[in-house]
Amino acid sequence: MAVLRSAALALALSTSCLAAPVAFALENHLLENVRIPAKDSKGDVLIRRIEITGTNLTRPEIDAFLSSSTSPLARSALAMKMEAARISIPEIVVTQTGEQTGALTFRDYVMVNVNRAKFESADLSGFSGVFKNAETGKDASEGRIASGPLSLKNVDVSSVVAAALKGDATDGAARVGAFSWTGLQLTVPDVETPATAVGGNLYDIRLAGATGGATYDGDAPLAARMRVEGLSFTPPRASAAGQALASFGYEKVDLGMNVEGAYDPVGKAFKLVDYSVSGADAGVLGLSGAFGNIDRSSFTGDKAARMNALMQGDLRTLTLKYVDNGLFQKALAFYAAMQQKDVAAVRLEWAMMVSGMLPILLGGEPSALLLADALGTFVKDPRSLTISLKSKGFGASFLGLAQIKDPADFFSKIDLSVTANR
User: Fold this and answer.
1) Which helix (H) or strand (E) holds 137?
2) For residue range 241-295, what is the model confidence (pLDDT) as tens digits?
3) How far is CA 353 from CA 260, 334, 364, in A?
4) pTM above 0.70, yes or no
5) Beta strand residue intervals within 265-325, DSSP E
6) Is 201:187 a contact under the CB 8 Å cutoff?
7) How far apart are CA 140 and CA 62, in angstroms?
8) Which DSSP state fits 281?
9) Strands 43-55, 396-397: parallel, antiparallel or unpaired by DSSP?
10) Average pLDDT value for residue range 392-412
11) Quick one: residue 346, left, alpha or beta (phi over 0 = left, psi -120 to 50 = alpha)?
């Protein structure tokens, strides 16, 4: 949504004001009713009040930073120069006109101890807004967005700003000590569904909360974590998505996520402690593993260097586990209805297909029989399924795995084990 992209720019106007220490006296600046027009003249950003305390930038430099006519390189250079004890913006209003219209308001934005593209904290009490596609007419449903607090702690984006000065910000990597986000709700109208349809025509997307953070050795993360709770997607009942979801036995998708990893820069080892996604009345899909020969440049170089270093790594172990809580039965019932068959007959058909066809497809590999047996057990009684991979020798390189051409080649590099309902 263009309104949200404009809003992101408005936040960047303050979060990018990053800094370098100076020898001369620091200044305080107060700016009011700063209006920044969009380059295409379709909307603007209004910052009603900005209080900047203890900064090394002059007023003309602040004005240049906030001007839409300032080039991205010039703005990045000012960002790398600036320091500030505190930046406070009570309200930012983003408006958009044209094919999409809308207004988005950010409230109580405060940054503390900004220094050389680093800051101690950045907090936003919330934001809210409305938007509409002008092509749908004045009677069309409005989309709405609202969010609770968003907080960032101990952030370093110096490499991102430095990379931007060289021409490509994506060559840099941001460091975030901790973050939290609470209470997002987004409603988006489905232009293909009438507003008068049963249940309306609004998609409803919600996030109860997200938290996370990392610790670092230089630019390399030693430990990182993220947790997402209450991420839900509810389509309009009369929409194509709503009908498809209903035919599968759901009114909405309700998800949670947990991610945790640890890196040993001395041993060049990365451990994926947990990467799991859970769904209400569905199940939990989890991934864990250990990887070797992961050089710290996998995290600290430019894009090409990061990718090259990562491809030198290797797989040690990888485990995929699925615990069912209704999803498999719904998938079975959905397929049976599509084929106009009895559910029990489809279950038997799937079990026979797995046990009979899978060993043939995998070239008669002995491990394939174990895989087929476990999958057959799961199909008959879907409780849990665990698939574990372990490299033979000193690890299967990512490059070597990417070049696997047939099952025999795969099993020459990897030991496979599969268990069901354990």
Assistant:
1) none
2) 999 999 989 999 999 999 999 999 999 999 999 999 999 999 999 999 999 999 9
3) 36, 18, 15
4) yes
5) 269-279, 283-292, 314-324
6) no
7) 41
8) T
9) unpaired
10) 83
11) alpha
Cα–Cα dist 178/176, whole Å: 6
Point out which residues pair with 171 in neighbouring strands.
Answer: none
| 3 state SS of 235 | coil
DSSP state of 246: H
Asked if residue 123 lies in contact with residue 151, where contact means CB atoms within 8 angstroms, the answer is yes
Give dist(CA 349, CA 371) in Å, integer: 17
E-assigned strand segments in 161-313: 175-189, 202-217, 220-234, 253-264, 269-279, 283-292
Both tokens of 125, joined, read: 């009490």
Residue with tokens 């295409």: 40
Neighbours of 347 (CB within 10 A): 19
Residues 36, 47: contact at Cβ < 8 Å?
yes
From CA 202, how far away is CA 211, in angstroms rounded?
28
The three-class DSSP label of residue 403 is coil
Angle between helices 158-166 and 72-81 (to 10 degrees): 140
Q: Where are the alpha helices (DSSP H) in 67-157?
A: 72-81
